[in-house]
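Following the same procedure, backbone shapes were mapped to integers, yielding the entry below.
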Amino acid sequence: MAPCRRIAPPTPCECHEDVGLNSQSAGNSADIASLIQQAQESTRQGAWSQAATLYHRILESSPDNVEALGFLGIQALSAGEFERSAAYFERALQQHPDDASLYKNLGLALRARGAFTEALAAFDQALRRKQEFPVALLHKGAILEHLGRQDEAVSAYVRALAQAEQFGLLLHSATLPDSVRNLLNRALHSAQQAREHWLARALAPVRKRYGSEALRRVDRCLAIHHGREPKIQMHPRQHPTLMTFPDIPAHGWHEHDAFPWMAELERHTDAIRTELLEVLHDDAGFRPFVEIPKDHPGADYWRAVNQSPSWNAFFFFRDGKRFEENHRRCPATSAVLDSLPLIRVAEHSPEVFFSVLKPDTHIPVHTGVINCRLVAHLPLIIPPACGITVGGETRSWREGECMVFDDTFEHEAWNRSDRTRVVLIFDIWNPYLTVAEQAAMRVVVEELGHFNEAHGLKGQIYASS
């Protein structure tokens, strides 16, 4: 059972954006409309007392006016009149029973009054009507934590943080009201603690097998990731989006002689290219490499190649899933792939595909998730005027000659020719990791996914820390 803590009432600015709900009401006469316009103007000017007087006048003629009820409910909440506040929101909900913001505000009033079970029900009603509602999830998590329901609280916090990150609230947290920012910090702390305990249990068998000294850099990686140690100084063009593995050389490009198995792969270039030409001729089994929902915050940056055949992929593996039909169609390629030291992380790796870049296509600058992984290219069809830049250094593909780079460095690629460019892409471990560290990082990435899945984020490696 978690220790009881007094939960402070929200500040007025926490929910002021929900004030102007809907001015429709039974008394929607010209006089009411005029009063509403005056009240809204007073609100814009910050004349809260004058606005309240006007909204009270509106309720005298139109007792069910939702906008007036919502404003006065928030005013009562900020004044500490929690019973009256809840009553206003309940009246408003009778007119608009599907309004998620009204349910959220009712939950705030009930929570401030100490009616935690009822408040929890109100936040649940809000979330049934609006699943992506991080503020409601944060308040729900705080109540669950107060009630000692820690696992449920962590689930609410993890989902809230994922949504907050998607909406940019974490990036701009300094601009949020103090009450919301405090809730975000509480959620971050609680989720981080739960995640660390989860990973510690998962890594115990690896630690027992190899010893703690063998996992020293892994432990430091996680300490940095969770904010218990300061971030390390990195190359100015290196920006891992998930986490940074410390104390390994920071190379954008990795040279050929570090990978003795590459000569054997290159020996099969002609056989792999023959199968590639067959699948290109059939024009089946390809899909856009970038498939981001059009309403996602990052979709605009990728619009030139998003959901477009200009950058197509023929997958042998994606997120660790094996595409059996594609392997069947390319038996020689499949056999070679089986011999490679691919990263194998359940539900994440390998990632292996023919990368097809159509003429006049540019892949914009981007970075990968973690520097313990490298990306390898076997160039198969390379017209002139094609290239790739990694960490500020541009190189050209040569058919049959492998290239390896750390994709946490800024990188971009282009095809400025009038013919299609194709390379075979696959991911491998960074050679500066030991066998023990590879085993541990495999567990870390898998278990971050399992942690999020256990808390309602299926298919995501990580929610914010």
